[in-house]
Amino acid sequence: MRKVALVAGGMATWGIRPATWSDLVQEAGTALFSSVPNLEAKDVDSLFVGAAQPERLAFQSHVAPMAAELLGIRPTRFIRRVELACASGQSAIHDAYAAIAAGLSDVAVVLGVEKMNLPSMAEATTSMANVLDRAWDGVHGGTAPPFFAMVAQRHMQEYGTTPEQMAAVSMKNHRFANTNPTAQFYSKTFTLEKLLGSPFVSPPLRLGDCSSMTDGSAAVLLVGEELARKYTDTPAWIAATSQYSDFHNLANMPSLTHWVGLEKAAQDLYRRGRTSPSNVQVAEVHDCFTISEIIEYEELGFCAKGKGGAFAADGQGDLGGKVVVNPRGGLLGCGHPLGATGVGQAVEVLHQFQSKVPEKRLVSGAREALTHNLSGSANAHTLTLYRREN
Amino acid sequence: MSAPSTPFLLDFFPQEDAKFTRVAPFFTHLREGRLTTTKCPADGSVHWPPRVSCPTCHRDQLTWIDLPKEGRIYAFSALYLGLPLGMEKEAGAVVGLVELGDTGLRIFSRIVGKKYEELKIGDPVRLDPFPLPDGRVFYRFMSKV
């Protein structure tokens, strides 16, 4: 299998944006092409678009050719949109990786995008309730907040996790977001009191525990081994990928608090990448809610089962801790434009390896990093392992 | 049945007429006050939600079985912010996973009869089928506390 390098990335500004879906696509494209002068649109043979719900959120389907037109790309190998809800962007990266590794593509752009802020917020949240099994779970009001609230309630009951420990995740990620001008909450500062006193979305989860409805986009360039140095001196090499899905309807979830699907996907990733959790220096994980990051510490093997809350409160996921988790600002700090999130995480990994991020979030000398997205009710997990050295 | 009042793509509730679904018996049974699902006689697996073939062994000769009408709350929360279209006026509604007797099934449902702060894990609930304005029927659970 050919080795595949992530060589460039560009970010739009994320937030509640006065911009359409198409505008966002162009912003990410401009950010990517301007960051890599040696890249011409005619050299790109494939375009993979990570987009979760353009049909409902932008009333647009067949979006990959639309994005290609907006970016001036005329794909000759692969053109497609990839959908896996909150993991759409990272899944699109996996598809580009597979195409290049197989030798069927040489130069691929992966663009992640979502336009989520509509004139009617209720209409937008309706499109979040169809991520679960709409007719049997979503119908009761089953969106992400009540689901992850039940996860938090059980984790608190089973392991003694506290609101203060969950708030520690939010504090860290919002602080990191203050170093990231593309983050939704770049210029907003939070105090522990403010987070712990914010209104309930779905108890025990408060507004400060939840990521936002966000407009955003990001794009990355993936190339085959022999082309990597044409575009950068410091690529991020894809060392392994994994995915796992073990249920959809909530009745079929093995456990609310022990995400066996993530545990398995992580073990697969480490085995395929010939590494272990202790070697991972940067982890961009899916903190759609504070409790998610706490459970991800556990299932990714950064701490023992049930100890995720203490890990957060001790700063073990912060600079100076065991592993730096979500230095970009996470979903909590950057916002969560579904299709763009996984691509934004990949940009952060590349820029960490290239020391392009501000010092306040730089993991100096980082050589191994992972990205993780869950999707839906944590019923699918998508992971990528990156290395600085080939 | 009257015509649905909500456009189909904004309508959360499943189509229950046999013209549209092969699990129509679920809704017929629900009108009789029964909570039912499918079971595979070949491998014994019980499905939720009801299926038209067994996801385990892929045989398509399934039987309908009755599930317990009573259960206990395994986990729960409430919808305070960010309610979907058509549910905006239901702020405070309680949802939860209901453990159905010794079936091992925990199904997600609306829970009515008590507010969030009046409930706790383990509280007993009972099946509460209810009519939709357009004549369809659906299920939820009522607190027994």
Notable characteristics:
heterodimer; A: 390 residues; alpha/beta; Peroxisomal Thiolase, Chain A, domain 1; 10-stranded mixed beta sheet; two-stranded antiparallel sheet; 14 helices; B: 145 residues; mainly beta; OB fold (Dihydrolipoamide Acetyltransferase, E2P); 2 domains; 5-stranded mixed barrel; 1 helix; globular
Describe this structure in words.
The complex is a heterodimer of chains A (390) and B (145). Chain A is an alpha/beta fold and 390 residues long. Helix content of chain A is 36%, strand content 18%. Chain A is built from 14 helices and 12 strands. A 10-stranded mixed beta sheet of chain A has the order 3-2-4-7-1-8-12-11-9-10, sandwiched between helices. A two-stranded antiparallel sheet of chain A has the order 5-6. The longest helix of chain A is centred in the middle third of the chain and has 16 residues, at 144-159. Chain A is globular and about 55 Å long. Chain B folds into 2 domains: 14-67, no CATH class; 68-145, OB fold (Dihydrolipoamide Acetyltransferase, E2P) (Beta Barrel), CATH 2.40.50. Chain B has 1 helix and 9 strands, in the order H-E-E-E-E-E-E-E-E-E. In chain B, a hairpin with a 6-residue loop joins strand 4 (93-99) and strand 5. Chain B starts with 23 loop residues before the first helix and ends with a strand. The A-B interface holds A 56, 120-123, 125-126, 128-129, 133-143, 145-146, 149-151, 153-154, 157, 199-205, 207, 249-252, 256 and B 9-10, 12-14, 48-49, 74-88, 90, 93, 95-97, 105-110, 116, 121, 138, 140.
